[in-house]
Amino acid sequence: MIERKRRPAIWLILGLVTLILFVACSPTGTQEVADQADAVVVETAETGATELADDTPEVAPAEEEEPTKVESSDETASEESTEDTNVSSESDAATEDEPADPPAGEETSPDDSSGEGSDEAEEEETAVSKQEDGIFTDDSRTERQQIISADWNTNWNRHTVPYDELLALLPVRDGIPAIDDPKYISPEEAAEWLVDNEPVIVYENNGDARAYPLQIMTYHEIVNDEVGGDPVTVTFCPLCNSAIVFDRRLGGVVYDFGTSGWLRNSDLVMYDRQTEGLWQQFTGEGIVGDLAGEQLTFLPSSIISFADFREAFPDGLVLSRDTGHDRPYGQNPYPGYDRIGENPFAFAGVPDGRLAAMERVIAASLGDVDVAYPLTLVAEEGIINDTQGGQDLVIFHMGGTSSALDAPVISMGADVGATGVFDPNLNGEKLTFAKEGDNIVDEQTGSRWNILGQAIEGPLAGEQLTPIVHGDHFWFAWAAFEPETIIFGS
After folding, report:
1. 145 and 234 both lie in a single domain
2. Could you say which of 86, 113, 132 is where a domain stops?
3. I want to staple 174 with a disulfide (CB 3.0 to 4.6 A). Which of 81, 198, 370, 412 is the partner?
């Protein structure tokens, strides 16, 4: 079972105060951001509750030609704003005080055969067309949204979501600075400050294995990188516990991403520095701008312990704390946030009541089926052998990985373990897996496997299962974006 330590909600407030003081006193913070810190604890219109505010899937086909790296249209401004602030906490009262106008065409009158009615009929026809292609073609931002984005070179007349779904938390882009020039160290060097049970995002490509510690990702959320010769973007939204890696090539162009300072369904909204359009981290979809409706390619990754990464990839690389920013790496600015029973921050929707909002699920989209496996069930079983959407899969769970969103110090967080999702078919044979004590073995050969789907002992030693794109997310977030999800075991 998952070890769960309950802490009083006061940790949320204490963590929040720490953030406010850090932002206000930071030598790199702007006064504009610091002035907004006094509004961090807000009473939301939907719940009337005081909450903690903060911001924070298929391999792309190879391109025939070398992708073109396009320089940012606002590079200087981006660099300046990157220095602005640490993880910030402020709720946007726009949805409460200044409700957004509905996108043009959503409200139409019945058809009329004369004069004004003809114009309304034409508007209704346009609205139907917008619904068909999924793109709204109007700029219906609220006044506050327009003020915040006044210096953006974004095509606001193209968007796939209503603007009233976007919550602007920060007054500037890159208030949470992405890492654009990541530096790496060896696992041995990282062990000087990274504890064995600490969670890291692991991504491997063409023999190049990287670990991105959540103690760093929590304060940056985005790393624009190149792994195994391919450009990728590694992302983490702590409010949704969503760690997702994307191929950042699209249409022969390599894009760079930053944090927009906006949220949707409590999830990080990124922006690309080439067109300055907005992207939903959870779905990888362009939602505003010239690239609205475009889709980034998800790449398989996992959150595992540093010890498991170090054992599996002794020659791998670990993201360095040398980021160019002064942050309290190792501390959790959201203590107690992932506790079951807590409410998600900055989530205006109604959580899907089939599971607790903050329950962790191992979730995947398989064929035309979206499926979620409650972590409590997977941890109890140890192994899940299943088939969904015509796809065979196996889920591994192993203990030893701490939550990044539990204790004030990440290394002291509750042990939530780590998961891996894989295709069990290997060399033409479908394997069935079981847990024997702390070991994962296949019933066909008795070989032993690790959390990354590598056979490490037995007749199949050296073999690798094909990973399946999945996420270890909070239920409320996955259900908000994939409402038709089926829940395994329900």
Report:
1. yes
2. 132
3. 81
| Per-residue pLDDT band at 130 (split at 50, 70, 90) | low
Domain that holds residue 268: 10-98+138-319
Tokens of 481: 């974006």
Please tell me whether residues 176 and 55 are part of one structural domain. yes
Q: How many structural domains is the chain composed of?
A: 3
Taking a C-beta distance cutoff of 8 angstroms, is the pair 2, 379 a contact?
yes
Q: Residue 19 contacts by C-beta under 8 Å, 6 or more apart in sequence?
A: 37, 40, 54, 86, 87, 88, 89, 333
Same domain assignment for residues 282 and 307: yes
Amino acid at 159: H
What's the CA gap between 249 and 57, in Å, rounded? 15
Measure the CA dihedral 70/30/233/144, to 10°.
Answer: -80
Helices (H), 165-213: 187-190
6, burial (CB in 10 Å: exposed 0-12, middle 13-18, buried 19+) = exposed
Same domain, 21 and 82: yes
Could you tell me the CA-to-CA distances from 11 to 146, 327, 342 in Å, in that order?
35, 19, 12
State the CATH number of the domain containing residue 375: 2.102.10
Whether residue 176 is found in the same domain as residue 258: yes
Q: Which of 298, 319, 340 is the last residue of a domain?
A: 319
Residue 352 in domain: no
Indicate whether 405 and 459 sit together in one domain. yes
Q: What pTM was computed for the model?
A: 0.78
How distant, in Å, are the alpha carbons of 22, 239, 259, 268 from that of 272?
28, 21, 9, 13
What is the dihedral sign for C-alpha 218, 221, 222, 226?
Answer: positive
Distance CA 490, CA 485 (A): 12
Residues 66 and 154 in one domain: yes
DSSP string covering 397-449: EES--B-SSSSSBGGGS-B--EEEEEE-EETTEE--EEEETTEEEETTT--EE
Question: Are 477 and 372 part of one and the same domain?
Answer: yes
**Residue 424: CB partners within 8 Å, gap ≥ 6?**
385, 392, 393, 394, 430, 431, 432, 433, 465
Query: Does the residue 329 lie in any domain?
Result: no
Length of the chain: 490
Q: How far is CA 414 from CA 7, 8, 229, 425, 426, in A?
A: 11, 15, 36, 33, 34
- In tens, the pLDDT along 314-352 reads 999 999 999 999 999 999 999 999 998 888 988 988 999
Identify the residue whose tokens are 């939301």: 44
